[in-house]
């Protein structure tokens, strides 16, 4: 019996990127320890590192640790920086007062937080020499794309709309990651101001992007069991990128309250909020996230000012294992996530998808 065309497409992708299973671990800034990438890579998928918050030396160390633990493949990932935020002292004071109900005192300079230097992070990624580098929130500068091409590194570009997919392909992306609005964590909209208005679900985004570009497309957002993997492949994806479904594995090492909340969160109990970082992201609808969405609550400050202002609350929440104030990112399929070893999750997703696709 001949292979289903969707399985043949996935097999071609695996062959091109040295994988045994068309499942990518999402690069999750702050929740992608080497242990998780090693487990996913050993199971035949692609490990991932969201390097957004990492200094250059930490990026090199992460890659070295994964290489020491696995012969499998991995991707390094960065956000394309937004223009510097416009500061507004009065608005930030209002946010500080609001946060006073949820966390410890906020240091006067908390809003001045600066992300690590993007150019130095890019350099560190090139030095680490991964097979794949991925982007989110925009496209890499031309000179960096040229460096990737000359060193043989493939560029996977995350997009949230068809227009972004075309722009990324035009800028030289080798693979498009189509991120539906179901996705946990930050939305990858190129323009932060359009992140909420441009919310498109994966069932509409994926086949439209597949039709609009010539490069392979990876599906991301709400894929959390074999049914999701099979559906994504039928809609034209060559592989899937999975985030939330890995977060309850022991290798992800996230706070217990967050992992537990993921297991009991219905799709309608997640929400898209700017209240943690200033950029739109999908989290469990915690007490803090809900309160911040009330009409009387102050508008969050822009990224990364809001991230700095909420840092004390978020850190205290992790120490106290308190879900209500924690930055508890989760996709809409959260409740499908199982507390199993990551290798078992990869195996189950792929076995079930293959069974469905005959
Ligand atoms: C905790 C968390 C952190 C994330 N951080 C990043 C990141 O740094 N870079 C990135 O490209 N995507 C990031 N994402 C988004 C994922 O790449 C992916 O699109 C998403 O997890 C897919 O939806 P799912 O969580 O429903 O599987 C993050 C997602 C989560 C849950």
Question: What's the total number of strands?
Answer: 11
Bound molecules: flavin mononucleotide
Percent strand: 5-15%
State the helicity in percent bands. Answer: 25-40%
Strand order of the biggest β-sheet: 1-9-8-6-5-4-3-2
Mean pLDDT, rounded to whole units?
Answer: 97
Which outline best applies?
A: globular
Task: Give the ordered list of helices and strands.
Answer: HEHEHEHHEHEHEEHEHEHEEHHH
Structural class: alpha/beta
Oligomer: single chain
Radius of gyration: 19 Å
**What does the largest sheet look like?**
8 strands, parallel
- How many helices does DSSP assign? 13
Low-confidence stretches: none
N-C termini distance: 10 Å
Structure overview:
- The protein is an alpha/beta fold.
- Helices cover 39% and strands 13% of the residues.
- The chain has 13 helices and 11 strands.
- It has helices spanning 5-16, 34-42, 56-69, 89-99, 118-128, 142-151, 162-170, 202-212, 226-234, 256-263, 287-292, 305-320, 342-356; strands at 23-25, 47-50, 74-79, 132-136, 154-159, 175-179, 185-186, 217-220, 239-242, 270-273, 281-284.
- The strands form 2 sheets. An 8-stranded parallel beta sheet has the order 1-9-8-6-5-4-3-2. A 3-stranded antiparallel beta sheet has the order 7-11-10.
- Helix 2 runs parallel beside helix 3, helix 4 (89-99) runs parallel beside helix 12 (305-320) and helix 9 (226-234) packs across helix 13 (342-356).
- The N and C termini lie close together (10 Å).
- The model has no long low-confidence stretch (mean pLDDT 97).
- Bound molecules: flavin mononucleotide.
- Flavin mononucleotide (FMN) binds next to strand 7 and strand 9.
- Flavin mononucleotide binds next to strand 7 and strand 9.
């Amino acid at each position: 019996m001949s292979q289903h065309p969707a399985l043949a497409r996935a097999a071609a992708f695996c062959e091109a990127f040295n994988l045994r299973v068309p499942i990518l671990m999402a690069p999750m800034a702050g929740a992608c320890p080497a242990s998780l990438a090693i487990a996913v890579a050993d199971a035949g998928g692609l490990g991932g590192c969201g390097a957004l918050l990492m200094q250059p030396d930490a990026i090199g160390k992460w890659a070295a640790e994964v290489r020491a633990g696995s012969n499998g493949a991995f991707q390094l990932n960065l956000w394309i920086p937004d223009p510097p935020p416009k500061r507004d002292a009065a608005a930030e004071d209002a946010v500080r007062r609001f946060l006073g109900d949820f966390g410890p005192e906020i240091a006067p300079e908390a809003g001045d937080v600066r992300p690590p230097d993007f150019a130095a992070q890019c350099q560190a990624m090139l030095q680490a020499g991964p097979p794949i580098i991925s982007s989110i929130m925009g496209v890499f500068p031309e000179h960096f794309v040229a460096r990737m091409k000359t060193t043989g590194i493939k560029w996977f570009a995350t997009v949230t709309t068809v227009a972004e997919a075309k722009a990324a392909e035009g800028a030289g992306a080798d693979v498009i990651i189509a991120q539906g609005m179901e996705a946990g964590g930050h939305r990858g909209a190129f323009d932060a101001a359009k992140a909420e208005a441009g919310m498109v679900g994966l069932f509409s985004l994926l086949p439209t992007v597949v039709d609009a570009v010539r490069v392979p497309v990876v599906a991301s957002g709400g894929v959390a069991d074999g049914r999701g993997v099979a559906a994504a492949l039928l809609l034209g994806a060559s592989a899937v990128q999975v985030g939330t479904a890995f977060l309850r594995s022991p290798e992800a090492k996230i706070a217990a309250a967050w992992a537990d909340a993921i297991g009991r969160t219905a799709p309608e109990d997640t929400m898209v909020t700017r209240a943690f970082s200033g950029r739109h992201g999908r989290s469990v609808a915690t007490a803090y996230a809900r309160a911040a969405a009330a009409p009387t609550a102050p508008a969050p400050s822009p990224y990364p000012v809001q991230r700095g202002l909420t840092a004390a609350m978020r850190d205290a929440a992790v120490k106290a294992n308190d879900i209500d104030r924690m930055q508890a990112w989760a996709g809409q399929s959260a409740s499908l996530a199982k507390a199993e070893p990551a290798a078992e999750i990869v195996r189950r997703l792929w076995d079930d998808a293959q069974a469905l696709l005959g």
